Amino acid sequence: MTMSNQGQDEPRPDAPSPDEPRPDAPGPDEPGPDALTAAVAQLTAELAGLRRDLARRHLLDLASGVLVAQRSLTPADAADHLAQLAETTNVSPEDLAADIVNAAAGQGAPGGQGAPGGDGAASGDIEAAAAGTGAAAEAATDEDRSAARRARLVEATAEAAAQTGSSVDEIAGTLLDGGMRPLGVRGLWLFRRTETDCLQLAGQAGVSALEAAHWRWVPPGTGSALHRVLAEAAPLWLPAGPPEGERLPGPAPDAARALLPLRQRGVVTGLALVDWPGPTALDEPVRRALTGLAVPAARILDAGASDPSESGVLVPLLDLLTHPAMVLRADPETGTLHVEHLNRPALDSARHVHGPAGRPLAQLFPVMQAGLVRLARVARESAAPQRAARVPVEHRPGDPDPLHDVRVLPVGPGRTVVLWHGATDPGLSLSRVLGRLENLAAFEDDLTTGKSRWSDQAYRIFGLDPAAPPVPLRRLAPHLHRDETGNLNELLVELTERREGAHTVVRAVREDGGLRHVRIAAEPLLTGGVLTGITGVYQDVSAQHHTEIALTATFDRLTAAQTQAALRHQLVLQLQQAIVPEVPVLQRLPGLQVAARYRPAAEEYRVGGDWYDVLPLPSGRVLVAVGDIAGHGIDSVTGMVALRNALRGLAFTGHSPARLMAWLNEVTLHTHGRPTATAVCALYDPSDRSLCWASAGHLPLLLLRAGEAVFLEPPRNILLGAVPAADYTETVTPLVPGDTLMLYTDGLVESRRTGIDEGLERLRRAVERLRPGGLDERTDALLASVTGDTDDDTSLVVVRLS
């Protein structure tokens, strides 16, 4: 932009001299606006780079895992083999990894189908597909291969974004920009299917906030194309838009659309709607590419699903309110408040931020953030609503308008609802005032003449013919519910005997059978000390009354749901502690002394999936096992119970640890939620003092012999629940009297600041420094001296040969 130089030669009298610092200029240690903008841009670019690197590493790890499972390689050898294969075929490691994973999944060729680990995923087929040879590779064109690679990379990028805490909107943007823009797509809509078959807009990309607000909820029973796709569980392709008379999200009625059902664990959990700017021919390559991208979209929808305990009435209720309201959720790891939902008035107040739902509170209301965080924290800790006249209390010139009459209600673990009033447009305020005045009616009774006057609105409130004479207040009883006679008489006593103004609320029964709640506010008219009349207003408060009843009932339901969720969580904690006690009572075992400890997570709500087991078997051998289910929460505990009990039952078959691990892998694949887990299964034979053991991706066992601690190299096996029909190998370790063996989970050694190798070395040194003593005493000392800083739960089993 070119600016005029006129007047620059003559400084203004009030302008500071060049050597004098400006009062609003940043100090020497204070960054200016440009520096802050540059810093934010740099951090944003770094975050994007980290996500790209995480997606790349995720894809390479998947390919290495396939090679480990199919060629029985170690992870390091698999990574080297992948690098050599990329160099040999002159294909980038990322594209090669995508080819290997696609071949394992049976998606390397057009129309290819299959599942990981199926017949089409043999190692020879995988390498042939990666090298561009073989029947499958010959059938696949370069365009097909490029599309398959792009889809796999987009899926890895979306999963990486989910792991870094991105919102559903941001992840949907990743799918749109990475995989759908090349197909000419304009927008992506992700709808989640609720328990009542209602469709909730969970995320969108390429769509304006106004469009998203119109389609936030789609009720069931409308017979729309959206619900037909849910019912038929089959894609719907509309190259020229929906049929005439039917509305769907999109930029224009004739714009092309594709509706894709989203499946998780064989169940349709929602659908994706893809739209184009105009009519588009949806040929087979486009349909195949979009069908492939529906797989990560389903995972995104599942990962962003609300807690099962969440009340389904909360969001629809807030959307009905005329004042701003939003739902806040506290991040369980950091405590940071994120905006989970905003109703329409709240969206209007946050229109300066694109896609506000899912963002941190500080990005939407930076000036109000400190006050809202404090109110939300107190509300959650006290389990009681909090209120403030305005937030923030101090208001400086230039700041956004404060939030007035703020109310914060706790509605579940980590979730709060914020209600407020804001500074509004004068025209809007005037419309609201006029709307309220429509429910007001004036009346006046002249006691000296016996005549009364009503405004026109009074006839509408009571449902009377405007041509009928007005009814005096003292004769209003026939128009009221029979139970309201007492309230009317008390009002008349106040007016006529005490001669004081008064008000009451009564139920008026209209001639058409309708019922209205009417507030009566009246004043006596006195002339020379003599009561000569009564004047006042009638106000129809039915809507307000019904709203108060609905809010009260809803708050009661939310409180009950919160209590039920807390009770269920406490039961889960008790179940976990009963199954995996912190200090168990172990029976005497042949030739062994055993001590076991379980340390729960630092925060109670993070119930974990760690377990251990020590079990004598009929054959005389002793089963010793530890395991760790990925994740936290109720699903992890239920998965832990399933795997622990399954291993206990399988151990009585007398089979080897390798066979037990293979069976346990199949159990994991058929467990609800499809968890993944690491585990160590060991069988000690007292007849020859041998330990036969197998590991599924678990940390190495630690052996203390003659004061020296060494780690036992575990067999190279894949973790439980990764691929079907996995083979596991085992190893036999001879033991001698006095040996001490330690099995543990990662909560003992993991650290946020250092790598796992440093944590293992700390454990080894601590074991060598243990003082002589009883086994229980030394186990407690080890647990006290070695601990990770991830606040994760920990299992520890210490076995000593007598």
Characterization of the model:
With 802 residues, this protein is an alpha+beta fold. It has four domains: 50-162, no CATH class; 167-303, Beta-Lactamase; 440-540, PAS domain (Beta-Lactamase, 2-Layer Sandwich), CATH 3.30.450.20; 580-801, PPM-type phosphatase domain (Phosphatase 2c, domain 1, 4-Layer Sandwich). 38% of the residues lie in helices and 23% in strands. The protein has 22 helices and 26 strands. It has a six-stranded antiparallel sheet with strand order 3-2-1-6-5-4, sandwiched between helices. Strand 10 (403-412) and strand 11 form a beta hairpin. Helix 3 (93-104) crosses helix 6 (142-163). The longest helix is centred in the N-terminal third of the chain and has 39 residues, at 33-71. The N and C termini lie far apart (86 Å). 35% of the residues are buried. Residues 1-25, 108-124, 133-139, 306-311 and 424-435 have low confidence and may be disordered. It comes from Streptomyces pratisoli. This is SpoIIE family protein phosphatase.
